[in-house]
Predict the structure.
Amino acid sequence: MDTVLDYIRSHHDQYLAELVELLKIPSISSEKEHKGDMKTAAKALAARMKKAGLSGVKVIPTAGHPSVYGEWCKAGKDKPTVLVYGHYDVQPVDPLNLWKTPPFEPSVRPSTKVKGAKDLYARGAADDKGQLFIHLLAVEAHLKATGTLPVNVKFIFEGEEEIGSPNLVPLMKKHKALLKCDSVVVSDTPMFDYGKPSITYGLRGLSFMEVHVTGPNSDLHSGTFGGIAANPINVLCDIVAKLTDKRGKVAIPGFYDDVVKLTAAERKAYAALKVSDASFKRQLGVRELAGEQGYSAVERQSARPTLDVNGISGGYEGKGAKTVIASKAMAKISMRLVPNQDPKKIARLFTKRIKELAPRSVRVEVFDLHGGDPAMTALDNPATQAAMRALKKAFGKKVLTTREGGSIPIVADFQKILGAPTVLMGFGVPDENLHAPNEKLHLPNFFTGIEASAHYFTELAG
Amino acid sequence: MDTVLDYIRSHHDQYLAELVELLKIPSISSEKEHKGDMKTAAKALAARMKKAGLSGVKVIPTAGHPSVYGEWCKAGKDKPTVLVYGHYDVQPVDPLNLWKTPPFEPSVRPSTKVKGAKDLYARGAADDKGQLFIHLLAVEAHLKATGTLPVNVKFIFEGEEEIGSPNLVPLMKKHKALLKCDSVVVSDTPMFDYGKPSITYGLRGLSFMEVHVTGPNSDLHSGTFGGIAANPINVLCDIVAKLTDKRGKVAIPGFYDDVVKLTAAERKAYAALKVSDASFKRQLGVRELAGEQGYSAVERQSARPTLDVNGISGGYEGKGAKTVIASKAMAKISMRLVPNQDPKKIARLFTKRIKELAPRSVRVEVFDLHGGDPAMTALDNPATQAAMRALKKAFGKKVLTTREGGSIPIVADFQKILGAPTVLMGFGVPDENLHAPNEKLHLPNFFTGIEASAHYFTELAG
């Protein structure tokens, strides 16, 4: 392993120069005028894979932007195979005037947080070109320094993550054999904090619903009809109020049936994060947090399901007074789900409950707009354990374990289609300006990340 | 009285022709280009007052459109003085293409409801030129046929009713002595139904409030912060839900303290209207009505206070899904008030209750946008009794008594400033297309209305 690490440490300047070149390509997947840049970026990655010593390298066309594949599978069938997922497309750059240096002219500047360290500013630096590059360089280091790798490694880099990965599931299904693996590793998240390496082992799912309440057949004068006609806005408010209880729980029968309880080990790991309510209060500018009783803020934020109204409308929303009883009211209501809640089942339970709660004086319609599975890779999964050892060795710090409140739908897809658990090993930082001007990669995380990845391949071999 | 009635009956053609001329003037108070037409209409009315035999006739300028005054006060100091209020301004005419005949080219067509009868179609026919003309012609009939009037009569016709009467209260205060009277009569409402003459003896007031709920200091990702941050929309729904109870009552402490209870006589009069829930359900297109338990629909609609959300907004209201926790949510909430509820007191109680209901995790702001006093002229008031006898004599039908769910703010103003009760003696019909295309006046109501007004002056004299 030492020869691998030595190799890495003696190539920092080259790694940085190569990443800078990759970041100069404006591979914005959502903007048509960058279609050519997408192809350029895919070709550059394929060329870099070949240079790293991968075989079977190819640019795979899709209905949208292409994916890039490469592998090194000579470790033997008794060794595990790990699939590295990353994406080479980036977010748009507006508002351009807020960038201190142009988004596609990478700039190295001193870190604002860590004395003596430097950050690399560019669109895509952290999300995700810098992070996918880490694993490619780690594989190269193994191969150049030792001529071999302790595990089989496959790479799939897509070009449509920022537009919702519309062609990734079809690609996975079509190339299931090619992508066959024992586990997936994704580096596309931030670490818990500077100097605090962490593994994200759970993600929440989503059920996004829309509720329409119709009262009278037209808007009415509230003077003439107030007291006779059910007001759909009042009714909607009543219904929404009854969807949660005083303890902050979701009051839909059956909602918690499939929720996997937090283990003592998990709760201990959450406590070890030492996140205070005060810091959240400061961040949100509120006097008091809300949520389910009996759980800490970080637990509520990521390991417990929630129900939030994301939008509501009805009646007169302009300035001043208008004495109308509206005919219709609408709410968009989403529920964050945790393992093993099923978005389809939750949507059914939600719909049933709404219909039960609606009085006969109105009509309700419930629409299931969107669903996503929650995901979890158990803390005691061998891949998770290997990742924790690797991070510990590379960063020399205690490794934290966290769950994310949001969703990364591909993680559930990897599990469903490839049958493989995913390790989320993020090397970003919380203030990396994701999707915003002045996106940055903390360079110590980049270089140490390559070492962590190198360790990971060794640790995975067991 | 017979000579008066004979006079009226022999002048129908002339009355109709004169009303048609008045209706040709496009006196739309809200549109600047009709400022000249407003003056023309005011002058025409002043001229007609003089022709009718009134004295002291004058066009009174205001900060907006002028009012027109005239009087006949020779009945003697021992006789009551009645003030006739009406308005000569009319609503705009859009959408013009839905008018079967042009709004300012009055057209007589067969009634769609009463066989053999005719209706007069024109903007302002019912609201309010036709109705104010009724009283002027009745006074004229008395004076021409008998040379005298049993009571003193004053007329005030304003030109700003359709824009909220901004200058009427200042005018009343300035000309308090001129307008001094024992009662006011206003004909600017519909009768209960065709062939069902009625007196409106009560009006609801209004308290219109706006509630703002602020949670986190910016919109948040519901994945990252769902479970920590209080969602201002959910909180607003909770608050709104708690403002009414299961029995349909307003759940604000003190809200009902000043409500005048319905008397047995009133409830009997309501029952006599024989309005079925089924007819309301058909009209509104609903399976079930809503409202306060223990009261009939017509009672709830006009004699009981209510609380309705008139508008609500917050978060993402567009198409599809957006997983946001909004920073703010807003609701416009109005309460219809009944005698003797005070809008200012109700606004205070409402504000207090909202602040009590808001959890510490949000900030609430409550704004008092608008208030209006409820009004009632007791059924046993001599003016009301006189009006009922007059309608009975003219229409030959049982006279119904009703209360209106809406507000006519000037009625409370007459009481407050002039100390005079108001009789609402409407000659419109429910389908008169008020404020809409094809406004119409049912001509039998116009002609019989003149007789009713003539009777009213006699009955008022006692």
Observations:
- The radius of gyration of chain B is 25 Å.
- Chain B has a mean pLDDT of 96.
- Chain B touches chain A through 78 residues (CB under 8 Å).
- The CA atoms of residues 215 and 362 of chain B lie 5 Å apart.
